[in-house]
Amino acid sequence: MYQQPKHGLDSAGLTLLRKLCGTGILCSLFASQLGWLACSAESEQPAAPPVASSPQDAAGPARLKQQVRVTVETNAPATGAEASKKSALKNLEWQASWNGWDGLHLALTRKTLLGQQVNELTNAYVAHLEETRMVGKIGAKFALDAAAFVADDDLDGFDAGAELRRARIYAKGDCLVVVPVSYQLEVGYIPDQFFIEESYLAFKDLACIGELRLGQYQAPMGLEAINSARDITFMEPAAPIQALAPGVNAGIQMGRPFLNQRATWTLGLFTDGVGEDFGDASQDFGRLITRFTALPIDHPNPDSPGHGRLLHLGLSANILYSGSSTVRYQARPESHLSPYVVDTGDISSSAALVLGGEVAWVNGPFSMQGEFLHSFVDQADGDALHFHGLYASAGWFLTGESRPYSRPEGTFGRVMPRRNFNWGRGGWGAWEIAGRYSFVNLNSGAIAGGRLSMLMVGLNWYLHPHVKWRFDYGFGSVSGRDPAGNLNLFQTRVELDF
Q1: Torsion (CA) 68, 74, 77, 83 in degrees, nearest 10
Q2: Closest CA to 74 of 110, 116, 111
Q3: CA distances from 117 to 5, 25, 123, 131, 286 (A)
Q4: What pTM did the predictor assign?
Q5: Which of 25, 251, 324, 358 has a beta carbon 3.0–4.6 Å from 270's, enabling a disulfide?
Q6: Residues 290-329 pLDDT 10s
């Protein structure tokens, strides 16, 4: 008597089954029939989704959990000795495939024979198997910058140059040992330092709290900061995000989408991490951060993705306690090859609160986005200090694409060109023009950190989903501190990942 397994058997399972059943002709026939029936049953079902290469995939590690155990019954003869026999045989298999621009994909499977027995009522031979699985992807990211500046004589340090902005390798995927877990490890180089970014373990679909994530990654504040550097419109985040929002920190957070994934909440505790790219410059801190997002308008168009509409709203709060009793904010004029032009220096304070609001509107190829941040610093000797900043940006895809949105994360994702660049065959990739105005004020009380206004325009060329070329021009004005003055910047970035 054959009882169909819930998810069928793969070829490795059939091989192991034949080993268990022995070498008898009858057993081999039943193993063959078992495989035919399993394949026939599965052929009537919709095809299973491909293995996702991202921990953020909707299936996540849950798809592995559905495949962890299988019970096989055949009419293979068994003796009493065989019925009581227990085996610890383990079968380890691995697969590797290079998927071009999608990186190196790996899969490890270990099948363990938990036990075997004979069903006395049916005289069926029963084998209990347990499967441990791990799937993942290994890849790399590179970004090369070049910039030139025209600045007033009072502004120093604006020298033309080029740099390797980022060079990182990463591994990410899902595994199932005791419980399902997603993982990511991303390490590499940013100018003059080793950096750990987006490296964590994520336990998903937990009761009440949704996802539990621990490691070092971007703290959940600031839409431009949370989005991958690869997926923001301009080369660098706006000046107020650089100054007032947290960067990549070490910590633990929980959160989940709700209201049919039209809203999200996140709550986390963070402290100093390894390396520093951008974000508030405070040291030796502990912070509590929470973020809420909502989609009051969401009208996707599956037949024409470039014509959907959505409105994103978000609120966040960051409570910081400084172990060094100092707080500091600083920002560059939105170019990493430029020096810091506004800087509060170390402020004698043990606590600060930053509140943020975010809004984004997408209507087909057109998008708008803006954020406002305000910091309240509890000065040790004196009145409370207030620093603030905002930016507003707009972009238009000349080739008809639209910014993709991730509802589970409340962020934007990677742009997928309608037609990848293909010289001589009519494929020109995706082209986007964009503009942004930003302002940050780091003057308050006796602190003269300065004010920075920036106007940026940009042209982005997405050759295909893994290669992007950007061109930015910016005009900036520094005031409220010494030195002050105006500057012009011209910069470009070529970036690729796989």
Answers
A1: 30
A2: 116
A3: 17, 20, 10, 19, 56
A4: 0.79
A5: 251
A6: 999 999 999 988 777 678 899 999 999 999 999 888 999 9
